[in-house]
């Protein structure tokens, strides 16, 4: 098996380490020379280029969304020449970006016009750290993987999903789900982007500087993702700005209800708000455990 990877950050690097640990040949490309040098010590066989692309069974675009599209546009012609989606000839291309509408709209069109296979994906795994140095071969083990196939006839859609599942299964993902770009971005604005905004904003309180000796699990849990890659997250959030803005507005409204209860000295109202959140969380946990 041969895998090509564009971008050797935490996600791309973890894919590289995972496939290499399984005995696959890994070709890769990263704009940082030091990262490329480090990756080629024991993980990457050679650079991903026009000569190695035809050898790949799978190509993973793991850079920032715009960089993924730029690489795909530059290589769409060669991918088309070596591919025949009807016979599953040629590599299947996936991306791992945290947004799908902005990426998939262009990527689906490039794949259709040039005649190669593309499926959007989003591995639901990561840490608060970034870069190849923090990449792990087991990062995706047990994690959910979201698949976003193009709109096409049922037979071709199933073929694409089956190919992606077969190529990704050895990595050890815990589950696979299928959705649309629009639904993906609507939900991910809540489950991922909003959490990063809240954590990042939370540590801006002046009290954060005095937390030492006064904090435990609650502080650690809420601040874990305040440490982030600003450039990457700014790009992701702007690509999903409408959904994220709506989630922030909803949160502000909910927080304001607690503030008003406190300012009014209304203990019963505050207790009701807290009980409501506790009830919703318990119901969500019960639903997840029975799924």
Structure explained in plain terms:
33% of the residues are buried. The protein starts with a strand and ends with a helix. The chain is built from 10 helices and 8 strands. The longest helix is centred in the C-terminal third of the chain and has 24 residues, at 267-290. It is an alpha/beta fold. The model has no long low-confidence stretch (mean pLDDT 94). The chain has 2 domains: 2-179, NAD(P)-binding Rossmann-like Domain (Rossmann fold); 184-290, 6-phosphogluconate dehydrogenase C-terminal like domain (6-phosphogluconate dehydrogenase C-terminal fold). It has helices at 10-21, 33-42, 65-81, 101-114, 154-168, 181-202, 217-223, 230-239, 241-263, 267-290, and strands spanning 2-6, 25-29, 46-47, 58-61, 92-95, 117-123, 144-148, 175-178. An 8-stranded mixed beta sheet has the order 3-2-1-4-5-6-7-8, with helices on both faces.
SSE topology:
Layout (H helix, E strand, L loop, with lengths): L1 E5 L3 H12 L3 E5 L3 H10 L3 E2 L10 E4 L3 H17 L10 E4 L5 H14 L2 E7 L20 E5 L5 H15 L6 E4 L2 H22 L14 H7 L6 H10 L1 H23 L3 H24 L1
Helix pairs in contact: 3-4, 4-6, 6-9, 9-10
């Amino acid at each position: 098996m041969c895998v090509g990877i564009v971008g050797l950050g935490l996600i791309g690097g973890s894919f590289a380490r995972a496939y290499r640990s399984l005995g696959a040949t890994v070709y890769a490309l990263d704009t940082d020379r030091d990262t490329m040098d480090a990756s080629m010590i024991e993980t990457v066989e050679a650079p991903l280029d026009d000569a190695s692309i035809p050898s790949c069974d799978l190509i993973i675009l793991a850079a920032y969304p715009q960089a993924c599209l730029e690489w795909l546009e530059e290589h769409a012609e060669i991918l088309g020449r070596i591919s025949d989606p009807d016979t599953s000839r040629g590599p299947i291309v996936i991306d791992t970006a945290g947004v799908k509408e902005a990426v998939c709209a262009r990527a689906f069109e490039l794949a259709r016009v040039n005649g190669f296979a593309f499926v959007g994906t989003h591995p639901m795994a990561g840490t608060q750290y970034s870069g190849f140095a923090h990449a792990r071969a087991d990062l995706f083990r047990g994690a959910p993987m979201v698949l976003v196939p193009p709109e096409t006839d049922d037979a071709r859609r199933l073929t694409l999903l089956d190919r992606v599942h077969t190529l990704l299964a050895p990595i050890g993902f815990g589950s696979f789900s299928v959705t649309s770009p629009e639904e993906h971005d609507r939900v991910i604005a809540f489950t991922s982007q909003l959490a990063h905004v809240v954590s990042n904003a939370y540590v801006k309180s002046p009290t954060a500087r005095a937390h030492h000796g006064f904090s435990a699990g609650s502080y650690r849990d809420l601040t874990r993702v305040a440490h982030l890659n600003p450039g990457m997250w700014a790009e992701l959030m702007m690509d999903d700005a409408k959904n994220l803005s709506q989630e922030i507005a909803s949160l502000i409204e909910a927080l304001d209800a607690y503030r008003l209860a406190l300012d009014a000295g209304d203990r019963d109202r505050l207790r009701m708000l807290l009980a409501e959140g506790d009830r919703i969380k318990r119901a969500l946990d019960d639903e997840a455990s029975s799924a």
